[in-house]
TrEMBL record:
One of its GO terms (biological process) is FAD biosynthetic process. The keyword Transmembrane does not apply. Residues 182-306 form the Riboflavin kinase domain. Keywords: ATP-binding, FAD, Flavoprotein, FMN, Kinase, Multifunctional enzyme, Nucleotide-binding, Nucleotidyltransferase, Transferase. Belongs to the ribF family. This is Riboflavin biosynthesis protein. Its EC number is 2.7.1.26, 2.7.7.2. Pathway: Cofactor biosynthesis; FMN biosynthesis; FMN from riboflavin (ATP route): step 1/1; Cofactor biosynthesis; FAD biosynthesis; FAD from FMN: step 1/1.
Length: 311
């Protein structure tokens, strides 16, 4: 997959079928849209492409509440690449694009830059200045200018509309056990292991700590059954998200205790997949009570892993 990070980088490319959207989370609705795009491109002998903005349009509109992302760009790109896409247009939502009228956007970006012959978008896709471009506008212009538009119906699972907003709310409420159903994968946080307070090993539960990025969607404080991947291997683990009130007053972080594991991971990259929330984080009277509770948390988590092996 070739990634273009600005419209200037796109010189002369082959004709494309483009999936239009923001694709944060690349959930099952997005996956269906992208699969149709890839299929159509193959059938027509064109290149398949996904178009997305590198910064969320809502985050540059004055007065709008900032939108937190589910995925970092490199994670999003990796998932999109696995769907068989040829080109990823990852374009900054700058002042020129923000103020571009819908019809200019079609002519100058979709047709001139992306060489778009067909497009797939959701029923609620909006584009152009003040979001005045709609699927109807695309269809009308498509007839005039000779490109095809396919508008997909709302994608639902068991009556629930699958959207990035819905998935953000699931994660934000700690309902991480439902993410697989709507995203086709577990909600995960990755990063480099940082040094903590070095208390974990003294109470029998060493943990690998990750810093939380508050510009991303984060799960609420609590204890979760997780997998932790390191060096290509996926280990059953248990994870605390929170501020460790029992031992002090810390910044929110993610710390995972990997079962049957005793390697030093400082500076290494790990990825924590969240399977289920088991309880809220609490302030205990002391480290001894905390340690007892963690022991029973681990028994419960190991049992969960045993029951749901390889999921
Ligand atoms: C499974 C698990 C559950 C935890 N639950 C709590 C909790 O409820 N309250 C709390 O204050 N700390 C909790 N912690 C965090 C511990 O306080 C922390 O792991 C320990 O103090 C070591 O911290 P360190 O890695 O910074 O050395 C939990 C940790 C784990 C691994
Ligand atoms: N079973 C394990 N699960 C998670 N991390 C582990 C485990 N065994 C060893 N480690 C490593 O031990 C260190 C954590 O020990 P700990 O005393 O909790 O210190 P910290 O406060 O820095 O997290 C980290 O480098 C971590 O990668």
């Amino acid at each position: 997959m070739i990634i273009f990070n600005s419209t200037e980088e796109i010189k002369k490319i082959e004709g494309t079928v483009v999936a239009l959207g923001n694709f944060d989370g690349v959930h099952k609705g997005h996956q269906a849209l992208i699969a149709r795009t890839v299929q159509a491109a193959k059938a027509a002998g064109l290149k398949s492409a996904v178009f997305t903005f590198s910064n969320h349009p809502k985050n540059v509109q004055p007065g709008e509440k900032p939108v937190k992302n589910i995925l970092y760009f490199d994670e999003k790109a990796e998932i999109i690449e696995r769907l068989g896409v040829d080109y990823l247009f990852n374009i900054p939502f700058d002042e020129r694009i923000r103020t571009m009228e819908a019809l200019d956007f079609i002519d100058q970006i979709l047709l001139e830059k992306f060489n778009m012959r067909q497009a797939y978008c959701g029923f609620n896709y909006k584009f152009g200045y003040k979001a005045q471009g709609t699927p109807e506008v695309l269809m009308r212009e498509g007839i005039k200018k000779g490109f095809g538009i396919h508008v997909l119906e709302p994608f639902q699972i068991d009556g629930q509309l699958v959207s990035s907003t819905f998935i953000r709310s699931l994660i934000g409420e700690g309902k991480v056990d439902q993410c697989m159903k709507y995203m086709g994968r577990h909600y995960a946080i990755g990063g480099e292991v940082v040094v903590g307070n070095k208390i974990g090993r003294t109470i029998g539960f060493p943990t690998s700590n990750l810093i939380i990025d508050e510009s991303m969607v984060t799960p609420p404080n609590g204890v979760y059954v997780t997998y932790c991947s390191y060096n290509g291997i996926r280990y059953p683990s248990i994870t605390n998200v929170g501020v460790k009130p029992t031992i002090g007053d810390y910044k929110k972080n993610v710390e995972t205790h990997i079962f049957n594991f005793n390697k030093e991971l400082y500076g290494k990259n790990i990825r924590v997949e969240f399977l289920e929330k088991s309880r809220d984080e609490r302030k205990f009277a002391g480290v001894e009570e905390l340690s007892k509770q963690i022991t029973s948390d681990c028994i419960m988590a190991k049992d969960y892993h045993r029951r749901t092996k390889y999921r």
